[in-house]
Amino acid sequence: MRQIPETHDGRSTAGAVSANGLHRLMPLILALLSLTGLGMSVWQLEMARAGVEIVRKDLPDGPVTYYLPQQTADGPLVVVAHGFAGSRQMMEALSLTLAKSGLRVAAFDFIGHGRNLAPLSPRVTELDGTTQQLVEQTSAITGGIRNDLGHEGAVALLGHSMATDIIVRAAQDMPDVASIVAISMYSDAVTDSFPARLLVVSGEWEPRLREIAVEKLRLLDPSAEEGSTVRQNGLERRVVFAPLVEHVGVLYSPTSLLEVRNWILGEPAGTGSGKNTLTRTGPWILLGLACVTALFFPISKWALPRREVERKPVTRRLFVQAALLPLPLAVTAALFVPVPIAGLAGFGQITAFFLVWGCIQLFLLRRHLPKVTGQDLAAALLLAAWGLGGFAFIMDTYAAAFVPSGVRVIVMCVLALGTLPFMVAERVLVQNAPVWRRITVRLIVLVALGSAMSFGAGQFGVAFTVLPVLLLFWLVYGTMGHFAAGRGAVFGTGIGLGVCLAWAIAASTPMFSAA
Length: 515
What we know:
alpha/beta; Rossmann fold; 9-stranded mixed beta sheet; 15 helices
């Protein structure tokens, strides 16, 4: 009987060859799966827009996107407002659902958000400061939308998070407001006599906001419970929660979409008559973003030949020094170098923090810095091109504003002075490091930056959304960077990630005027 040859570890030669062949095919398999998933995602997201005319305009009080149905139903014009650090794109599932139900919808960008390049007032803790500025914008832009569309009838106001308080206050002095929809609501302007028609939707995983919603419902009926509708003295109020979602997921929940649709159209709550109009874009957005990220692995493997680089291991002592020594100086620089960028608050401090942190780490790791080669240039260009031209494009088109424009481009260029050394140093420090080291390094940065923002509340604290952006950046761009650095291009990967981080912060952070 013929004996099958074995390898030195006891495996058959045929099995080893088969495993090796499968390993070589993995990039191709992943590329095909990712392209298929990406294609399905884009197809579904574009089909969700079918039958709705989408028109983007710049009105005097801000940029607006109109969602106009082919056949108009008998109902109000709906004005849609996003939450803090959001944009029109984040509200599109709701906007499309309402438009497919025959309603004309107009979603706008608040001052300092998305494509609205005017800065917010820095007086965030005063009602006559930032809040009043946004209330006035909401009233003005609603009037502008009415005039632009020639609409003389009633309007409905829909807002998420921060916008819930804004739209309730704006409605107090606005004529013909048929109803208000507040998603993830917090507002002291809701009383036992106003608004006349109010729907409040919260995510199941927003316990405090759900409590607030029930409190507002019980202003009309002390015995009312979540999930009920109260009608009293000409007022109508309903409070519900969307299951298994949080502060962002509530915008895409089918429960939210159906409740909002039925409320604005005046149809009975809980009926399924409008289910065919629900636009469930959330899962397809996540699939598209995941596939764009995964697709970078085979692209980097094919575009960047693997280069073996000899690197001295970072000792535990050096790791601790590099992780902790930058903390006090970076926090101090952020607090005491309050230089605004283009007249905007927060960005100067963020730049100072990253610059000092990165430079100190680079000095400590100077004996471990890799030699720069053409491979690094290729990696930097590839990572920046895919991260900004691929991932950012899908994000900006279907999920949230993620492309800097106007003054945000200036902000990005200045931020890069800090993010470039920061990301190069981080990449050197975590390359080939165990997972616990990578997590530890990043947690220290988040804690340090968060502490600096809390100590410097006001001019620096207004940029607190940088913290979740940084966390998501490491999750997405950090994964792509890991693929590129694995090809032997550690320095170039750091450069590419530094550019992408400056882009992400500049594109997504609300802009406040420096005091």
